[in-house]
Write a structure and sequence with these properties.
Blueprint (H helix, E strand, L loop, with lengths): L4 E5 L4 H12 L3 E6 L2 H10 L4 E4 L5 H11 L2 E6 L15 H22 L3 E10 L12 H12 L1 H8 L3 E7 L2 E2 L8 H14 L6 E2 H13 L6 E5 L9
Parallel strand pairs: 1-2, 1-4, 2-3, 4-5, 5-6, 6-9, 7-8
Helix pairs in contact: 1-8, 3-4, 4-5
Protein name: SDR family oxidoreductase
Family: Belongs to the short-chain dehydrogenases/reductases (SDR) family.
Pfam family, one: adh_short_C2
Length: about 240
Amino acid sequence: MSKRTALVAGGTSGIGLATARKLRDRGYDVHLTGRGKERLDDLAATDPDLTGHRADGGDAEAMAALAARIGRLDALVVSLSGSEGMGTLADLDLDMLRRAFDAKFWAHLTTVQAVLPHLAPTGSITLVTAITARTGMPGTAGLAAINGALEAAVKPLAAELAPIRVNAVSPGVVDTAWWSGFPAEQRAAYFAQVASVLPTRQVASAEDVAEAVVFAATNSTTTGTVLESDGGARLITM
């Protein structure tokens, strides 16, 4: 039996990298993409058994060419994101929100469409969204729109692309580099406050969420599902 192959778009850090490592540990030949040469160089040193490629998920030609070079894919994980999108509606810069849609919503769909011809009939597509799609946190309307749009596509795509499976994983607050723009003390205080009210009493790590992503990507009977890996954030007011 030939080795299974996975592509993790946006796999040089955070949930994407944790997912790539877990898929490797499950026996997959794992390819991943990133836009920054420095992170890819670092990855080549720390994880030489992961194959990194410099590519932008929003570039259809680049992603299609990469998929063609790799060949048949058994799993596609899309963990692309940007750092923009937060803000109250009254003050929200809509040009910034358009960029945020480009960085996540359009990049996810572009990647899926470009890679689709190279997915095995028994393959899977797993999107990484966010809990903002189904909570009422002030200041997250823009993020909710982006992630909600992606999650709304999961069921129709699962029906349309069958037997390829299509799922999403919806994380809550996760301790990743996404929060690096916040001062360390402020970030630590916010994480402590969040952990105190979450049903699980903890802020997730990238590895925690990656376990859910790997399940969605590899479980042969799971499709059309948004798997919540949020510590119960959807159950409370944050």
